[in-house]
Amino acid sequence: MSKNLLPFRRVEQRDLPDEALVAACAAGDSLALEELFRRHGEQVHRVLVRLRHVDRNDIDDVVQTTFLEVCRSARRYRGGAAVSTWILGIAMNVTRHYVRGEMRRRSALAGMASVSFPTDDSRPDEWVSQQQSLERMSSGFDRLPRDFQIIFTLCDLEGQRGVDVAVALGIPEGTVWRRLHEARIRLRACVQEGVRG
After folding, report:
1. SS3 165
2. Right CATH number for 13-107 from 3.40.50.720, 2.40.240.10, 1.10.1740.10, 2.60.120.10?
3. What's the CA gap between 71 and 35, in Å, rounded?
4. Which one, 63, 81, 84, 108, has least CB within 10 Å?
């Protein structure tokens, strides 16, 4: 072997930016898809848990379906949004299909906030009041239109930027802000309803 030749070194998937991984997926690289899953799978799972549109027993299947769709859609990625936002948009579409095709009802939003148990220094009436507020919030969330639920979850619970959510969902940014504002007003009214009552 010639002394002038450098040994071939495969670029590690972990060293590549998300955009390069999407391009590699488009070319059929399963290791790139695996790396995208490693980087973004947990966030997709977390969003689906918070939305409560998918039965807990099926969430892992919906997450895997999302990444299969990421692989199928990789050629159409144009870089208009961050890869994480693009993947969340795909997850929302997969979830819509899941809800339409396999699930007409969803479980309550009890898991949105973890249930806390009274500590030695908390008063029982404070704990009961907190639980009642969470139940009112959960009930209010269930009554929101599905589009409001998605935007509230992505913006307020996941901390996504409004512009990224607009791109991911294919709607104007102003629509995102209007729906988020209305969702907050409705949820606040549900919680305050119990305080006044």
Report:
1. helix
2. 1.10.1740.10
3. 12
4. 108
